[in-house]
Write the structure tokens for this entry.
Amino acid sequence: MQSLFSVLLSEMEQVVEYNQYFSQAMAYIGAAIAVLTGVSQGIGQSMVAAKACESIARQPEMAGRITTAMIVGAAVAETTGLYAFITAILILSQFM
Amino acid sequence: MISFDTSFNFGLSFYVSIAIIIMLAIFFIVLGVKFSKLDPIKDEVPLKGLMMLSVLLVGFVDNNVDANLGKTKRKTYSPFFLGLVSYLFFANITSMIGITPPTSNLAIALSMCVIAFLIFEFTSFRFNGLKNKLKGMLGPVPFVAPIIFPINLIGEFTTPFSMGMRLFGNIFSGVLLSGVLFGALEALGHALELIVGTVAVTIIFHPIFDFAFGLIQVYVFFMLTTMNIKINIE
């Protein structure tokens, strides 16, 4: 097993050579992984919108105040995704 | 086409924001002179145009400050918030006239968070004093104070920082997306396609990314500043 692994590693070293293209590719992959945070942001924002819809259905006369609270809440929930976006842009900005 | 400056250069955004500030100063001085000539008892002429809009803006800021901070704090905070809201509004929608908005620059957005940090500290020193401030940061239980104090100290800085980054991220994402869309138009070979595509992108995406998102961000920045001032007063 040890020999198989070492053989595989040596094969990989022949294929993957560390140069500027390798680091660029790794940076792109890292940016893509960073942007995956958008999943959690989408769930959070949709929960804010769903709860706001429920409470407007329960109390239609409070619709205005609920809408403003919803906008502020959604903007706060958006922060995580924005940090991911900024991180991805910071990674990519080295190659722009 | 799209540049992201991580070296905290103000660049052109500095001059754009100076232009916005001078424009707002002239605007408010002219309106103030006009309003001072009016007599609220004698002149019952209904207001029109810019005067009506400025009355609505001042009323909006005053009502929000009253609702969140109380009527006694109106004299302290309303002028500050009026300046902040009007500057941020015009800074966010400058891309409607083809200029890169100043708030999509990291340095300008972080200056906004420095302003927010200063107003929070001013509030807590003015209404609580240094002693009460430190007592509040140490927490209610003396046993866990060494753990709570650094967390609270970091919290003092991260709240305005997160507000500035939120503003920057929203406005910069709009600039980036419209830049990508305009860049994609270069692939269209036919002249008619190019014209139709440019008009469509301009009409559909500029109002969404620049006007709507910018307006929402102004409101969010305003509301979060008032909320945090409210927390610091108590």
Remarks:
- DSSP finds seven helices and no strands in chain B.
